[in-house]
Amino acid sequence: MCESELIDEISVVSLIGMPGGGKSTVGRQLARRLGRIFADADQAIEQRVSCSIATFFEREGEERFRDVETEVLRDLVNRPRLVLATGGGVVLREENRRLLSERTVCIYLRSNPEELFRRVRHDRRRPLLQVQDPLGRLREMIAQRDPLYRQTARYVVETGRPSVTTLVNMVLMQLELAGLVDPATVPSPVGRPMATD
After folding, report:
1. Domain annotation covers residue 43
2. Cα–Cα distance, 183 to 187 (Å, whole number)
3. What one-character DSSP code corresponds to residue 86?
4. I need a surface site. Which of 44, 106, 135, 153 has the fewest CB within 10 A?
């Protein structure tokens, strides 16, 4: 198999990480750069339950939400040529961690709690952060989830404050270094000049 075919042999590239970590934004651009389809697991869940996640959470509870999340994930990891942005709590179930680590090239977009808080402090669509102290809640969630993200992911990319384009390039460089992307077919502009007409 030639190097340029390697990424095509992988059904799904998945992104995991905390709410507000940039999974959907990075995922859309990554899919564009790789010539793949983008899917957002949270949107797929909302389509399946015919309401917002916040509404479903309130009506059915977290356990039932996690059941639906696993059902949707089982479907998505079998789709060809996909870049998948997952929900922040997807790693809380062992089956989900196994699906992501075994069936996808999984990348953890790692963020610190202060940066996440800056991004999500006004977002009312995240049911687990509708508490008196959302920053404290984010710290608790990271303490619980970070080991699970690390256990599941093949690669970790620190998000910090770079632009989305820079984050996409960092992900692409990880895939290139692993031999999963041919830099000639998906050039990363970081560290080398861009081709001009």
Report:
1. yes
2. 5
3. P
4. 135
Q: Which range of residues forms the domain containing residue 69? A: 3-177
Q: Are 171 and 22 in contact (CB under 8 A)?
A: no
CA–CA separation, 165 vs 142, rounded Å? 25
The pTM score is 0.85
168 within domain boundaries? yes
Do residues 85 and 27 lie in contact, with contact meaning Cβ atoms separated by under 8 Å? Answer: yes
Distance CA 124, CA 146 (A): 23
Question: Any idea what the CATH number is for the domain that residue 20 is in?
Answer: 3.40.50.300
What tens digit of pLDDT does each residue of 86-132 get? 999 999 999 999 999 999 999 999 998 888 877 776 666 665 566 67
- The answer to whether residue 60 sits within a structural domain is yes
Enumerate the β-bridge partners of residue 37.
Answer: 82
Which phi and psi angles does 68 have, rounded to 5°? Answer: -65, -40
The average confidence (pLDDT) of the chain is 84
Alpha carbon distance 49, 58 (integer Å): 13
Strand partners, 13: 83, 105
Residues 107 and 180: beta-carbon distance below 8 Å: no
Alpha carbon distance 74, 77 (integer Å): 6
